[in-house]
Structures are given as structure tokens and as C-alpha cells.
Write a structure and sequence with these properties.
Blueprint: E1 5-9, H1 13-25, E2 29-33, H2 36-45, E3 51-55, E4 57-58, E5 61-62, H3 64-73, E6 78-83, H4 87-92, E7 99-101, H5 106-116
Parallel strand pairs: 1-2, 1-3, 3-6, 6-7
Antiparallel strand pairs: 4-5
Length: 123
């Protein structure tokens, strides 16, 4: 039985780092990125992620391209979007990717992430 792997992407690096520490305490291997380019490098070089938590607005643009790259490279990875923007994400998230609205607690994030990974899928 292996460790579940999590990718956290938020241009507010402190948020991603705090969440990574929390998930590490829960037994996850958590990596964080503060930009699309950094996230793409992790997707290409860090092996398979089980879940990616991605802020909808990163560096002034949406995460749509990053999600498409993740789906192409790691189709088994589940995605959870986070956002403090209401109307934009409702309009632009036509694929229906689950969304957790900011602000949220680490516990709420952990519950949403755990719900995305079916039981018994640890590596």
C-alpha cells in the first residue's frame, strides 16, 4: 500500500505550502506550485498524482490550459478547483470540475480531496 500523491497549485504560494504541510501530516505526498509553468514541470517529471487542487485564477489567467495538460498527461488524476471568484468560474467551468470556494478550512479541503479518491486505490 503506497502513499497518495497530491499536487497543489496556487499563485499564493503560502496557501499551497500550508495545505501541503497539512496533507503531509495526513500521510499524503504533497507537492506545490505557484505558477502554471511550475505545475507543468511537476506534472511532467514527478510521476502520477492522484489529485490536483488548482486555483482557478493563476497569474491573471484561468487554469483551463493547465487542467487540459493534466488530463492529457495524467488522465487518472482527479481535479478540484478552488476559487474566490464566483461568476467567472461558473461561466468558464463548462466541464463541471468540482469547485471549493475560498475561503475554506484545511479540514474542508481534506474532506473534498478524500471524496475524489475512491477507497482502496492507494499505491
Amino acid at each position: 500500500m503506497g502513499v497518495r500523491r497530491l499536487l497543489l497549485v496556487d499563485d499564493e504560494l503560502e496557501i499551497a505550502q500550508l495545505a501541503a504541510e497539512y496533507f503531509s501530516s495526513l500521510g499524503w505526498d504533497a507537492k506545490c506550485a505557484a505558477s502554471v509553468a511550475e505545475a507543468e514541470r511537476l506534472i511532467d517529471k514527478s510521476g502520477q498524482f492522484d489529485v490536483a487542487v488548482i486555483d482557478w485564477v493563476i497569474g491573471g489567467s484561468t487554469a483551463r490550459g493547465l487542467i487540459e495538460r493534466l488530463e492529457a498527461r495524467q488522465p487518472r488524476c482527479r481535479v478540484l478547483l478552488t476559487s474566490g471568484h464566483g461568476v467567472d468560474i461558473l461561466r468558464d467551468n463548462s466541464e463541471g470540475v468540482p469547485v471549493l470556494r475560498k475561503p475554506f478550512t484545511l479540514r474542508a479541503l481534506a474532506l473534498r480531496v478524500a471524496a475524489l479518491v475512491p477507497p482502496g486505490t492507494e499505491r
